[in-house]
Amino acid sequence: MHNLTIAEISKKLQEKEFSSKEITQHFLDRIKRLDGTYNSFITLTEQEALAQAEAADKRLATGDAPTMCGVPIAHKDIFCTQGVKTTCGSRMLENFIAPYDATIVSNYKTAGAVTLGKTNMDEFAMGSSNETSYFGSVKNPWDVECVPGGSSGGSAACVAAQLAPAASATDTGGSIRQPASLCGLTGLKPTYGRVSRWGMIAFASSLDQAGTLTKTAEDSAIMLNVMASYDAKDSTCVNEPIPDYTATLNDSIKGLTIGVPKEYFGEGLHPGTELAVKNAIETYEKLGAKIKEISLPHSSLSVPAYYVIAPAECSANLSRFDGVRYGHRCEDPKNLEDLYMRSRGEGFGPEVKRRILVGTYALSAGYYDAYYSKAQKVRRLIKQDFVDAFKDVDVILGPTSPSPAFKFGAKGDDPVAMYLEDIYTIATNLAGLPGMSIPCGLVEDKPVGLQLIGNFFAEGKLLNVAHQFQLATDFHTLRAKVDE
Amino acid sequence: MEAKEIEKLAKLARLEITQETIDETAKSITEVLALVDQLQSADTGDIAPMAHPLDAVQVLRKDEVTESDTREQLQAIAPATEDGLYLVPKVID
Amino acid sequence: MQWETVIGLEVHVQLATQSKIFSGSSTAFGAAPNTQANAIDVAMPGTLPVPNEQAFRYAVMFGLAINADIGKRSVFERKNYFYPDLPKGYQTTQLAEPIVGTGYVDITLENGEEKRIRIHHAHLEEDAGKSLHEDFHGMSGIDLNRAGTPLIEIVSEPDIRSSDEAVAFARKLHSIVTSLGICDGDMSQGSMRFDVNISVRPKGQEEFGTRTETKNLNSFKFMEKCIAQEVERQIELIEDGGKVEQQTRLYDGDTHTAKAMRSKEEANDYRYFPCPDLLPVILDDQYIDEIRQSLPELPDARAIRFTSEYGLSPYDAGILSAEADVAAFFEATTKASSDAKLSANWIMGELSARLNAEELSIGKSKVSSEQLGKLITRIKDETLTSKLAKQVFDHLWQGAADVDDVIETQGFKTTGDDELAGIVDNIIASNPQQVDNYRAADEIKRKKMIGFFVGQVMKATQGQANPQKLNALLQEKLG
Q: Does A315 sit within 8 Å of B74, measured CB to CB?
């Protein structure tokens, strides 16, 4: 059962081959049996899941249930879930029971999907290895000595270990695509504004976007159909028509122009990864696509710009965690200052603190122009690179991350080395474009991903291009060996 | 970035940084700032700063009261309350 | 040395919207603590703001009223600082691109001169909650009901030169925002609050002195006191060879003293930056024109109309037109009495004295405009003398409903002409000595001596004689 994709589970549920309760129980049992190894879940919501499954079965019995009805999934622990702990991977929210559902959570509930639990993540989504979680690091199912990537490492690992058929996730600088790459999954970060941010705990508001980690592009399309909605509660959510993303999966990509940025194949790219991506380009050529070398001249500035903008926004976004109304509060505060300093000092881990400090610095008097304002200008240049590129190409292709999964601690005390993990993914967030990562080969027996970047709100095209690759290849069907 | 500057920033951000970790913090932040300083090489001439990826404009809400009292629910997760108030160490202006 | 005071005001005006600026919580005053603070207002993780259109409409109304440029594009920014009444750890406000640009307000000084005070800009922002300092076992209590109430902060140029000017300016703003109906104007509930920037300089010097900012003034009286104290403090300081330090001071309304909160060195670094949860607000010409067309009458225009339409003196017109509710009361009274001058006198005299004594706003007056109007018609038709009318007014104030009923039941009617003539004859007849004295006296002495007869008649009529008629009658009959 756990080998199935969402599309397959949905079909079997509709055909009554098994019930939602049966498959939900199957995954719950697997999580309980196997997740001790991976640590991909922070909270398991067994009771709620079984109740939701029962309700889904009733709906399925009417013969008129939507595609995701009865399908169990996991949610990244960054999404607020009413009555269920939402930790954001932080001690700060160790005991935080959200009083409401995130919009995407209620979208999935409305669609009848079942929530298995909440997945582990880098603290406040800050990290690329899942080593910053207060609840311990997550192991990569392909090699438990390696990181699963981050920040959505729990969502990636649970799908890779087949503890859930799919999971929700978020991506601020690569937090969906990089773990997808490192865990052999299909990851989708939609256009900024495509999916509501209401109830998604903010890291960097102008970069954060919710998306999915699945086994296939088809499953991503099914997930996005439910996840995307116009939400008046999020001012940055865009009221654009939402097509049926599964409807265009099988469109021919003959004559499609794929741009390959020369800047994405420079120093730092693992030769194995480079080869896998080059092979993928050949596959696309065989499928009838035209390949065109392009230039995104400001690519090298995306990481520096990001590490001003994201910390600046996070330094303000995380000010609300002050020990007054919810969250961690230090013991016996001497005075107000002490309450703030210690509650926040104890509640946040080192990476979160580092980013708050960098952001505070970048916004402080005398540095705003040199850092924050400069980074915002560079951001425009980076976006313009893409706007220019999309005049000539339909989709942009390159590697997702520089190399396959690395060992725990490998980039431990060097934040900059860790930040460079997202060198190919960050520009997409700065520009607000949709991006995907799909498996394109194994390097050192570990998966590597191919990144696809689409034009604004062209998720349909992106999913189509990814699906066609998956029809022609079987990298996405390779599974980590799980010690059953 | 020196320890003293870190202390100033930490005060501004209300973050306790222990004495044991302060040098390490200073060192890593210096590294991050070195990375970030690459921005200075960019020619941004008369480019306008970009705050949002999309050129969208704000949609305004109608002036209606849509919320009811949820105090009990919200304060169920509060660290300290009394008589419906959130309690904090004495505020001295 | 002669000193000159330089003052700039920052005025916070709570906008009279139903819901908050970024959430659908009610803004009603006086609810139980935190019952009007929803998930957004208490800054629950994952919550997001959505701005209230009415707040923008009100801000634009204000901008048009002060002849300001309207920001067709305005941007919210975050002002970062930690305080328990500020749940997000930042205040969402406007800085670089505010909704209202430069404008001006004209004030009338006591000597009748007009003075123009320039407005630097006015911006939209959210109010903070309240810290309650009563003792909760050595803790403070935080009520976030007020957090997120929409405010406009109006920032003046340093054009004000005295506390009188400052008060006149503040009153004028009060008059504008209440006339527009964008603020309830209730100072006791903090609907309007002032921060005052004060500096002094030797008369004739162009350069400004070092200024201090005193926060938290919520009445005109406090503002007047605070300015006087602060000016005196600064002058003394300088004359004693000291220096004014740039600092923020907090005014205590209980002790009527201000003390330093923080100096420039300790000043907050607010780290403003555009709020990434909100997008630029774009208002088009049509939107602004529609508001312009539907603006209610402003105090200045109303004052001009009161002089031309009702023949009031500019002084009376100024007083009666300043506040929308007073102006409306005046017009309704005039309609009922058909006498603008008498209506004006009664409102500025008797009624205003009563309202002040009981600290009531005109909206809560115990005598309605209809009642007052009718009372005035009874003066005009000589049923009542003004002295009697004041007694009738008393009864109305105590709760009596109808003017004529009061006159009837209390016997307040002016003594009739024939009856009065009889009484006068009687008094003349029974006081021959005084009559003789009077007739023997010259004009000047007579004026004094007539008082005796007036007194006698008033006594006999229990004060209900019409004084003008009585005087004429006495002069005629005494010869």
A: no
